[in-house]
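Structure ticket #2291
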Amino acid sequence: MNIKYLGTQYGGWVVDMDSIQDGDTIISGGVGEDISFDEALLKEKNVKIVFIDPTEKSHRFMENNLPEGSILLKNAIEKNSNDTIKIFKNTNPNYVSESVSQTHDMVGDDYHEVETIGMKDIIEKYNPSFIKIDIEGSEYNVLEDCSGVKQICVEFHHHCMTDKSFNDTFQLVSKMKQNGYDIIDNRKNFQEITFLKTNIKNGV
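Resolution: structure written out below.
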């Protein structure tokens, strides 16, 4: 393994560079206004990045910052594609994070509606070797659908949602380990984890 930290302190992740090859497709779910990780990865590897984010503020940011050869999908990542769901807006206009869950402590009553894209459909279409998901609570719905992807970085949001607890995160992490993943980085007490597929089980 070749473990590196890429990006800023706010937007960076620890990854195994040996598991990412030139020509691979990378999924960057939850863009916000910080693509420092993605830009650092592009300096290391010749990859194609598919950015996915449903927030209007992120769309405006990406209009002037989308790396050459990359694409932006303006959908919410969920279990199923082509649903229309509510995304609750941040109560602070200076911040970008929004959530499908109104229990997220940064959102209020105001919302907009977006179309979903299912994680399984994303994987089937793009066949990524790496997925990053910072999707403000929706990770609990879709993380297991990533099983089979070589490397996954995920931010868990039990610390800022009243309908999710540390135990919800711990149980999901345990399921990922049962699916053949090792944890190669765990920061902020299970808030940011990098999983690496090391064991092939049940043909997955």
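Closing remark: The radius of gyration is 16 Å.
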